[in-house]
C-alpha cells in the first residue's frame, strides 16, 4: 500500500503514485487492470468484509479512534451501491451514513462547513459521507456560484478542517473518488429509464449535468491538487466488483493497523 504522503494520490491497487499536480483524469483507466480476475477478486472482497465486521466491532468497543469515509463521484458512479455492499455488512450501531444534497436555507445561513461538522464521527464510529464538503468547491464552481478566490479560501478551510478532526479526535479519513467513464455513466443513467428497480433514481437534471463533464473533471483535478493533505484514492468504477474490493481493502488496512484491543471488564 502506498504511504499516506500528502503529495501523492493512491490509484487502483495502491501501487501506483504520481505527484498530485500531474493528475489528468482522462489518462487514468476507469477499469480494473486486465490481469485481475473478477471471481477471485469477489472472493477476496467477501473475506475482507468478514474481517471488517470484527474490526468495526473492535473500533466501537475500544472507542479510541473514528473513521470518516468520503465518497465523491459523478452521477451514476455507484456511490449508493458501494455503501450498501461494503459498509452495509457491518453493525448498524457503529456505522452512520450522511448523504449531502443541495443545502437548505438554514444551512446556507451558516458557513459552508457548518452542516458538515455536525456529522463528523464520534470515537468508535465509522461515518460515511455520500458526497461531502467537496461539493462546495466542485458543483458550485462548475455552475459559477462560487468564484475562484472564494474557492481557494474554501480549499484552505477544508484542509484545516480535516487536519483538526485528525489531530483532535483521532479521526482517520479515507477519501475516494469513483472514477467512471462518460460512456459507462450514460449507460447507467439510461438504465434508470428502463429498470423498475432503478427508476426511483431518475432525475432529468443528471443528463444536463453530464453535458458539463469536462468542466467537472477540471474541477476535480484542481480539488485533488489543492486538497491532498489527506490523500485521495482514485477508484476505477466502471466495474462494481473491482470498486468494492478497493474500498473494502483500504478500509480494512486502516482498521487493521490501529492494533485495537477489547477494553476488558469495567472496574
Summary keywords:
6 strands; Rossmann fold; 10 helices; alpha/beta; 267 residues; six-stranded parallel sheet
What's the number of structural domains? 1
Strand content: 5-15%
Q: CATH top level? A: Alpha Beta
Distance between the termini: 40 Å
Low-confidence stretches: 1-9, 12-18
Largest sheet: 6 strands, parallel
CATH topology: Rossmann fold
Please work out how many helical segments DSSP would assign: 10
Order of strands, widest sheet: 1-6-5-2-4-3
Notes on the protein architecture:
There is one protein chain. The chain is α/β, with parallel strands linked by helices. The protein has one domain (37-256): P-loop containing nucleotide triphosphate hydrolases (Rossmann fold, 3-Layer(aba) Sandwich). It is built from ten helices and six strands, in the order E-H-E-H-E-H-H-E-H-H-E-H-H-H-E-H. It has helices at 38-62, 79-86, 105-108, 114-117, 139-142, 148-169, 182-194, 204-210, 213-226, 240-256, and strands at residues 10-11, 66-73, 95-99, 126-130, 171-179, 232-236. The chain has a six-stranded parallel beta sheet with strand order 1-6-5-2-4-3, with helices on both faces. The protein is globular and about 60 Å long. Residues 1-9 and 12-18 have low confidence and may be disordered.
Amino acid at each position: 500500500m502506498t504511504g499516506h504522503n500528502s503529495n501523492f494520490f493512491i490509484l487502483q491497487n495502491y501501487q501506483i503514485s504520481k505527484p498530485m499536480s500531474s493528475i489528468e483524469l482522462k489518462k487514468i483507466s476507469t477499469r480494473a487492470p486486465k490481469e485481475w480476475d473478477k471471481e477471485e477478486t469477489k472472493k477476496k472482497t467477501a473475506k475482507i468484509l468478514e474481517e471488517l465486521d470484527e474490526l468495526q466491532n473492535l473500533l466501537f468497543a475500544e472507542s479510541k479512534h473514528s473513521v470518516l469515509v468520503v465518497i465523491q463521484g459523478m452521477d451514476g458512479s455507484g456511490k449508493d451501491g458501494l455503501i450498501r455492499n461494503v459498509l452495509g455488512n457491518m453493525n448498524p450501531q457503529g456505522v452512520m451514513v450522511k448523504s449531502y444534497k443541495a443545502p437548505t436555507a438554514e444551512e446556507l445561513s451558516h458557513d459552508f462547513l457548518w452542516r458538515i461538522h455536525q456529522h463528523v464521527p464520534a470515537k468508535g464510529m465509522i461515518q460515511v459521507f455520500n458526497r461531502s464538503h467537496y461539493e462546495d468547491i466542485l458543483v458550485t464552481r462548475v455552475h459559477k456560484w462560487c468564484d475562484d478566490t472564494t474557492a481557494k479560501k474554501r480549499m484552505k478551510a477544508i484542509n484545516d478542517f480535516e487536519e483538526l478532526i485528525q489531530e483532535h479526535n483521532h479521526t482517520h479519513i479515507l477519501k475516494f473518488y469513483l472514477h467512471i467513464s462518460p460512456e459507462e455513466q450514460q449507460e447507467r443513467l439510461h438504465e434508470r429509464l428502463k429498470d423498475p428497480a432503478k427508476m426511483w433514481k431518475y432525475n432529468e437534471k443528471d443528463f444536463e449535468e453530464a453535458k458539463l463533464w469536462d468542466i467537472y473533471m477540471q474541477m476535480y483535478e484542481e480539488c485533488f491538487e489543492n486538497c491532498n493533505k489527506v490523500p485521495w484514492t482514485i477508484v476505477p468504477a466502471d466495474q462494481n466488483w473491482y470498486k468494492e474490493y478497493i474500498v473494502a481493502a483500504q478500509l480494512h488496512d486502516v482498521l487493521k493497523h490501529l492494533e485495537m484491543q477489547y477494553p476488558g471488564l469495567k472496574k
